[in-house]
């Protein structure tokens, strides 16, 4: 059975640093429809305090953290994303963000043989992360799923 770890940067995926509850809920409905996380998977989320609180209230099985300041949510996710630890517990990792800070993690996971997928939403896709997932050689491309969210 394949186990997947999801790392979701809520604010980037929703496309704003101050998402409404409706935007957060819309995102999670789209995420769950597209990926259907199972009981053996783990979903890690980070965002503003309000975003993280909303996740805790509505998705009790998900681990949510709040980040403060520039790249605060990103840093909180990276604290949880130790490549060596992930490599012995999960077969696949989905990075839900377009922020370039995750490009090194993508590279490290791929070197350890972990299947990596990138999920994007309304936020931008940084060029360094794009380079990490762009085709480099035959069969080396990281899959990318774009979630389409209503306006």
Layout: helices, strands, pairs:
Layout: E1 4-9, H1 10-14, H2 21-35, E2 42-47, H3 49-58, E3 63-66, H4 72-80, H5 83-89, E4 92-96, H6 103-111, E5 115-120, H7 127-133, E6 144-146
Parallel strand pairs: 1-2, 1-4, 2-3, 4-5, 5-6
Short description:
Helix content is 41%, strand content 20%. The protein is an alpha/beta fold and 151 residues long. It has one domain (4-91, 103-122, 141-146).
Pick out its properties.
151 residues; alpha/beta; 7 helices; 6 strands; globular; disordered C terminus
Question: What this model shows, in words?
Answer:
- By secondary structure, the chain is of the alpha/beta class.
- It has one domain.
- 41% of the residues lie in helices and 20% in strands.
- It contains seven helices and six strands, in the order βααβαβααβαβαβ.
- The protein has a six-stranded parallel beta sheet, with helices on both faces.
- α3 links the parallel β2 and β3.
- α6 runs parallel beside α7.
- The radius of gyration is 14 Å and the shape is globular.
- The C terminus is likely disordered.
CA-to-CA gap between the ends? 37 Å
Uncertain segments: 135-142, 147-151
Based on Cα principal axes, name the global outline.
globular
How many individual domains? Answer: 1
Report the helical percentage.
40-55%
Main pleated-sheet profile: 6 strands, parallel
Give a count of the beta strands, DSSP E runs of length 2 or more: 6
Task: Quickly count the helices.
Answer: 7
């Amino acid at each position: 059975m394949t186990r997947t770890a999801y790392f979701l940067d809520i604010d980037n995926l929703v496309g704003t640093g101050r998402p409404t509850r409706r935007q957060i809920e819309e995102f999670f409905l789209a995420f769950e429809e597209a990926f259907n996380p199972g009981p053996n998977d783990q979903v890690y989320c980070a965002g503003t305090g309000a975003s993280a609180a909303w996740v805790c209230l509505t998705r009790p099985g998900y681990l949510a953290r709040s980040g403060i300041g520039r790249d605060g949510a990103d840093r909180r996710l990276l604290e949880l994303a130790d490549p060596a630890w992930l490599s012995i517990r999960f077969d696949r990792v989905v990075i839900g963000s377009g922020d370039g800070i995750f490009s090194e993690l993508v590279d490290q996971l791929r070197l350890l043989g972990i299947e990596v997928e990138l999920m994007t939403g309304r936020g931008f896709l940084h060029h360094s992360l794009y380079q990490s997932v762009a085709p480099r050689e035959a069969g080396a491309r990281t899959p990318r799923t774009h979630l389409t969210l209503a306006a």
